[in-house]
Design brief:
By secondary structure, this protein is of the alpha/beta class. The chain is built from 20 helices and 18 strands.
């Protein structure tokens, strides 16, 4: 990736930042040098992204200094990307090398002047020759002669096939736009990479490629990530933001976890001792406040209390809690079997005769590139997506529970957290609801929060809590760790480790897959390949196959067209692409219309819920029953709309688009 500055690339001295009356962090001090890998960790809302933006110069500290030498270049990965523009993804990625383009243009101009001198028989001016040598060296050192190959290499690693590279920016989904931004950042090769959730929106092959790219990067990197595998491999220092404090832990991620736990134990002991002293002081003040003879001592104790810096504890590590999902009914030996399944969207055949069998006790993860058909297969298995032909056979006593991301939007924003959980509960469940929510990090006043004010992570935890309240013996999960922070991911891992049923899931969280899966099913070009063990075992087997001379599978679900294509084949391919584009456009319009309908229906349902909260209404029993009936009818309509949305979203995914 080029050369990097030696020495200190970046320095923060006593940096502090508040938002309104809330202190985000104070006294942040750190030196960053070439080769450093710093994992920036802490709970959601602690200010990690704000700190990265300040380092990048997009925000200013309230106090303290951020010092960056003139020779240091800082690069920030942005999650918000401008989707406008008709230029292609390849052209946008190439803008990262604009400096090389400018150097090449100057070289051509200088060569023209030197040729002109040659024709006129005059000596090339010294300043022209000197400038040409400098430009040529800079161009060569910056990789100018291979810049097009670099662009293709990076786009290939991030999962862009030929068609996706040529798509205009305005046609790309948010996830693909962020990939373009990541490509630009890596191509620009700054001295310091500021990476805010860099593996979001990447599929597993692209994450593995990014892993290797970051390992070979010669500059420094500051990582904010919920990807524990990424932190474990790369971070050599952990910088924690919590309770407005900034703490540095030298060493690897697992050492940080152990060190943090030890510090927590010590802090709890200090707090216990301090609380005891404070209680004694307060008791003395209360007892002798009215006695004139003790007035001086009382005032002294009051001032002492005011000056005391209270020991603060972060929330107790809830991942230590253990929740056991209620024991489900025992299923038959074969949980689900697919036989000769065919599934197409128009002319695009996703599966043409695929077979699949899951046995009792298996925990299978689907792996493979985006667009390969993982979600289509998962939804067919869950029973929410119809197929063209073949058979889907559920085993004896099998009860399927399906978790998909749209279920976050299905939560009733007018209800409290515990009221929402009660909608999935029976009378026997009521005594354990608070404990169940506690295991999913809802404690104290959290359970009375309105669903409408919850963050994405909190909604995801609540939706999972609802799903896991009832004892189903076959769980089908689509990206269950999306929106979850590290603590919540570990809670979910603990829950699923104790689960005695069978499990099929899709996840891009490698640590989660390693903790849960005992089988990997690779989905590639409409075919399935089985690997026993977790994700690391799967990678080892692939690596062994590659070293044995077995051809590597392509990362793209759609291989690049052969250069030997005939003209007729190329025309047919273009016509097929036009048909695909038209179909995708129609699907996107219909999905947008459905989302609007769902929004309207949920708005009406919320309004009715608020009306039911009016005590005056219950004087009119008939009107209450009418509103309840209307809410029930609306819920049925919403469920139907969501099923249609899922069907269309799966079609769009199979065509290479995102809903």
């Amino acid at each position: 990736m080029g050369g990097y500055n030696a020495g200190v690339l970046l320095r923060l001295d006593n940096v502090s930042r508040s938002i309104g009356a809330r202190l985000l962090f104070r006294d942040v001090s750190i030196h960053v040098s070439a080769g450093d890998r710093i994992g920036l960790v802490g709970p959601n809302g602690a200010g990690k992204t704000t700190l990265l933006r300040m380092i990048a110069g997009e925000d200013a500290p309230d106090s303290g200094r951020i010092m960056i030498p003139r020779s240091s270049r800082i690069g920030l990965l942005r999650q918000e990307v401008d989707p406008s523009g008709n230029h292609s993804a390849r052209e946008e990625a190439s803008t990262a090398l604009a400096a090389l383009d400018a150097l090449e243009a100057e070289l051509r101009a200088l060569e023209g002047r030197m040729e002109e001198c040659g024709r006129e028989g005059i000596e090339i001016p010294h300043d022209v020759a000197e400038r040409y040598d400098a430009c040529h060296s800079a161009f060569e050192f910056g990789g100018g002669f291979e810049r097009e190959a670099r662009v293709e290499r990076v786009l290939d690693g991030l999962g862009f096939d030929t068609r996706k590279r040529a798509q205009p920016m305005s046609a790309l989904s948010g996830g693909w736009l962020v990939r373009v931004e990541l490509a630009k950042l890596l191509l620009s090769a700054p001295d310091v990479l500021l990476l805010d959730e860099p593996t979001n929106h990447l599929d597993l092959p692209s994450i593995e490629w990014f892993d290797e790219t970051l390992a070979s990067f010669g500059g420094a990197a500051i990582l904010v990530s919920h990807d524990r595998a990424l932190l474990r491999r790369h971070a050599t220092t952990l910088a924690e933001l919590e309770l407005a404090r900034f703490t540095l832990y030298k060493g690897r991620y697992d050492a940080y976890i152990a060190d943090k736990e030890q510090r927590r134990i010590e802090l709890e002991a200090r707090k216990k001792s301090q609380d005891k002293e404070i209680a004694q002081t307060e008791k003395f003040i209360a007892r002798f406040r009215a006695k004139a003879s003790k007035a001086r001592q009382v005032q002294s104790r009051i001032k002492e209390l005011e000056k005391t810096e209270r020991v603060e504890l972060a929330q107790a590590p809830s991942r230590k809690m253990r929740l056991r999902i209620p024991e489900p009914r025992r299923a038959g030996e074969d949980v689900i079997r697919l036989g000769d399944i065919h599934k197409s969207y128009d002319d695009n055949a996703v599966y043409a005769g695929v077979d699949f069998l899951l046995r009792r006790g298996e925990r299978a993860a689907l792996a493979g590139p985006n667009g390969a058909g993982k979600s289509t297969l998962l939804r067919i298995i869950a029973g929410v997506l119809p197929f063209d032909s073949g058979e889907r056979v559920l085993g004896h006593n099998v009860e399927v529970a399906f978790f998909a991301q749209h279920q976050l939007e299905a939560l009733n924003p007018a209800l409290s957290v515990i009221q929402e959980l009660e909608t999935a509960a029976t009378s026997d469940d009521i005594p354990r609801l608070r404990g169940h929510l506690g295991a999913f990090l809802f404690s104290g006043d959290d359970i009375d929060k309105q669903v409408g004010v919850l963050s994405g992570g909190e909604k995801s935890r609540l939706a999972l809590a609802k799903l896991l309240l009832r004892p189903s013996n076959f769980l089908v999960l689509d990206e269950p760790t999306n929106h979850l922070d590290i603590a919540a991911c570990e809670v979910l891992e603990d829950v699923l480790k104790s689960y005695t049923g069978s499990l099929l899931f899709i996840s891009h969280d490698r640590a989660f897959i390693n903790a849960i899966a005992n089988r990997i099913v690779e989905v590639q070009s409409g075919e399935l390949r089985d690997f026993r063990g977790n994700y690391d075992a799967y990678l080892r087997e692939l690596s062994g196959a590659a070293k044995s001379g077995v051809p590597e599978l392509t990362q793209s679900a759609q291989p690049d067209p052969s250069p030997k294509e005939t003209k007729r084949e190329r025309m047919a391919s273009r016509e097929q692409e036009k048909t695909r584009s038209r179909k995708k456009s129609q699907l996107k319009k219909r999905i947008a219309a459905l989302e609007a309908e769902i929004g309207n229906a949920e708005g009406k349902q919320q309004e009715l819920g608020l009306r039911l909260g009016d005590p005056e209404l219950f004087r009119d029993g008939d009107r209450v029953r009418e509103i309840e009936a209307e809410r029930t009818q609306l819920q049925a309509e919403i469920d139907s709309l969501y099923k249609e949305w899922e069907r269309l979203a799966a079609e769009l995914e199979a065509l290479g688009g995102d809903a």
